[in-house]
Each structure stands twice: as C-alpha cells, then as structure tokens.
Amino acid sequence: MSKAAAPQIELASADPSIAQEITRWLSHLGAERRLSPKTLEAYGRDLRQCLDFLCAHWGERVTLKRFAALEATDVRAFMAMRRADDIAGRSLMRALAGLRSFGRFLEREGNGKVGALSAIRAPKVAKSLPKPLPMASAKRLADADERAGEDRETWILSRDAAVMALLYGSGLRISEALGLKRREVPRPGEGDVLVVTGKGNKTRMVPVLQNVLELVQQYVAMCPYSLPADGPIFVGARGGPLSPRIIQLAMERLRGALGLPDSATPHALRHSFATHLLSRGGDLRAIQELLGHSSLSTTQVYTGIDSERLLEVYASAHPRR
After folding, report:
1. Could you list the active site residues?
2. What is the pTM of this model?
3. Per-residue pLDDT of the chain in tens (321 residues, 90 and over written 9)
4. Interatomic CA distance for residues 128 and 125, integer angstroms
C-alpha cells in the first residue's frame, strides 16, 4: 500500500529542531494515519504560518521549549490574524486541528505538553448543504450528444460523458473515477461492481449500472490510444493521465448549454447520486457505505436537503393555500 510522503519543511522563523519534528510528525501522519498528500501539505502550511506569526509576535525564533509554553492568548492572536485575512471558518478549524495534532505528537515524543491548544474552542463553521442537480439534468450531463456542436474529437466527448456517468451513477469522487484502471472496470454484462480507492487509500465496492458500463465501453472502443489492463482507463488528449481540470472544464461548457448554475460541478453529481437515492427511499447507512464516508454524520447532511425539499412541496401544494 502506498504511503503519502511528508513534504520537507524549511523554516526561517523557528529553530531547526522544530523543523525536524514537523517532518517526523508529517511522516507519521502519512504512514500511520494515511492522510492524503494534500492534507499533509495543508497541515504543514498552517503550522508554518503559525510559526511565522509567533516569531514576529514574540520577537524571536521559535524553539521547542518556547512552543511548548504556548499560551491561549498566543493561539487566539494567531487565529484572529488569520480571520482578518478573510480565511474561512473551515480553514481555521483545519489549522487548529493541525496545531493540536502537532502538539499531541510533541507530547508523545517527550517534548512537553502544549496545553494551550486544548483550551481554544474550534471556530464556528456555517453549515452549507450540497447542491444536487435535478435528475433530468444529471442524466443529460452524461449524454455525449449534448456537446455534439463542440469542436472536439468524438472520442473525447464520449470519454467525458462516461466519466460523468460514473460520478452520477456510482457516486464516485472525480479522483476515484480517474484513478480506475482498465482491468477494474468490467465490460457490459460481465459484472456490476467496481472496487474503488478513496480517501486514505481505503477501498470500497460500489455498484455500477450496465448503461454506464456501455458508455465506458463506447469510449474505450473509440479511444485512439492503447489502454493497458494495469493503466488508467481514462486518458487525456495526448494519451497521458486525464486531469480532473479537463472534466471540470467540460462541466463548465455543459452548464452554459443546459442553463445550469455555477454550483453544477463534477462533485455535484456525487451529491446528486446521494440525494436522489435518499429521495427514492434509500437507506442512509447504505448510502454512507456507497459514498465511502467514514462517519454517518457526513452523510446525514443529505437528510437536510431532503427535508428542505419536503417542506417546499408542502408549502407549494398544501390545499389550504
């Protein structure tokens, strides 16, 4: 199983011993916690920004001993500085989580207890509900004919339609769909399940519809490049790995053609998958498994969408109106 590599930390604001501990901490998170490279990069960036702030705040380079003596007022000052830069609540919450994780790591390694971090309340984060698409629109996004007028090769239009069909039909993240190897996608009539690798390199089984497999097979038949069994099934215009940005751009073009809002993104197809299953009586626990959510609370956000829709129907259709 591949392990996320920890980014190397270079600091002008802190003692080299702290830089060494940060590298060890990030390596631990990548190897033991299996956090993604992007998460490791964000944690390292947040901690570096904190150390830069403390260096200026205290007027001296930060040492392990000084960091262990961190006070709650120091942390609040850092958070206030970040909020003044219009940093969103979720980013502030991630920064605090990273600082706490680093503090716990230092404590386990015998480098003091950073008690001030546990005394700080996490910032409030405004709840934002996912924005699913109407069923008809979600289906049209997976129709290559909707982009027939574009100056693009037919196989590329077919490829994009197949990717979007997977996002909506199986609730995949775009990284999961683009990470599929050819041997992992059955031919139509030869299987109805995909094994995908999600966050933290965790694998899960998801069902796949036969008409989605047919779209994938149509693309494979048209693709001008060799698609080895152990290579990615979706490739770019030059035969290399397909960038998520290409699918995002395809979605942007379709938004204009179909009159959809800016919230219609590739990830919105995953939201639509969950919402439409729930509205048709799908079990929340089953949807959690299909989406690959580690916590049911993450999936429960879709019950809020469903409740909103019920209230809208009630308000518009009740006979007392």
Report:
1. 173, 199, 267, 270, 293, 302
2. 0.59
3. 344 444 555 688 888 889 899 999 999 988 887 788 888 888 999 999 999 999 999 999 999 889 988 888 988 898 888 888 877 777 888 888 889 999 899 989 888 888 777 777 766 655 566 678 888 888 888 887 887 777 889 999 999 999 999 999 898 989 999 999 999 999 999 999 998 888 878 888 888 999 999 999 999 999 999 999 999 999 999 999 999 999 999 988 888 878 888 888 888 888 888 888 877 777 777 777 778 777 776 666 666 655 555 455 456 555 555
4. 9
